[in-house]
Amino acid sequence: MPRTDATLPEHDRGAIPEGLLTRRQLREKGLSPGGHGPVAVLRCKGCSYRPDQSCNHPTRGWLYDVELARPKRTPTLAQEWALDRAMAARSTCPQCKRRYYYCLPLRTQGCCDPCARGYEPSPDTYFASTAPVSHRLAA
How many CA atoms lie within 13 Å of 76's alpha carbon, on the beta-carbon side? Predict the structure, then answer.
């Protein structure tokens, strides 16, 4: 597809102007696009050999303006509690009441693997607390 002036400007890797970053680079700096769309396209490695063609591969990246970026939002305490309750529901076995460090196959199996197969789980796979499952904030 030949390049046109109607599309976003395209830049090859290593030739990106100052002030344009990818989403990952914005995230590393603690920023987010802030509701603004991309201002340029980062061409994929293969398209750098075809400067007259437009890059439409899925490996292309989007570049955002740092001036339009905003600081990342931090979740409120209520949002953290809600996320923790959701994760607790996904990682707590309904039979043995252990909260594991990973999500359980509750939809297909209905319980944790040790309960389903009848063996004792390894202590490093679940929270060792003897108290009932309490909420542990995610962030």
Answer: 3
* CA dihedral of 107, 109, 112, 114, whole degrees rounded to 10: -170
pLDDT tens column, 75-124? 999 999 999 999 999 999 999 999 999 999 988 999 999 999 999 988 88
Tokens matching residue 37: 């769309």
Integer CA distances (angstroms), 35 to 8, 49, 57, 70, in order: 17, 33, 24, 9
Q: What is the pTM of this model?
A: 0.58
Residues shown for the chain: 139
- Copy the structure tokens of residue 87: 């994760």
The total of other beta-carbon atoms located within 10 Å of residue 21's CB is: 21
Q: Are strands 61-65 and 40-42 parallel, antiparallel or unpaired?
A: antiparallel
Q: Where are the beta strands (DSSP E) in the chain?
A: 10-11, 20-21, 31-32, 40-42, 61-65, 70-71
Contact 109, 116 (CB under 8 A): yes
* Residue 34 buriedness (CB in 10 A; 0-12 / 13-18 / 19+): middle
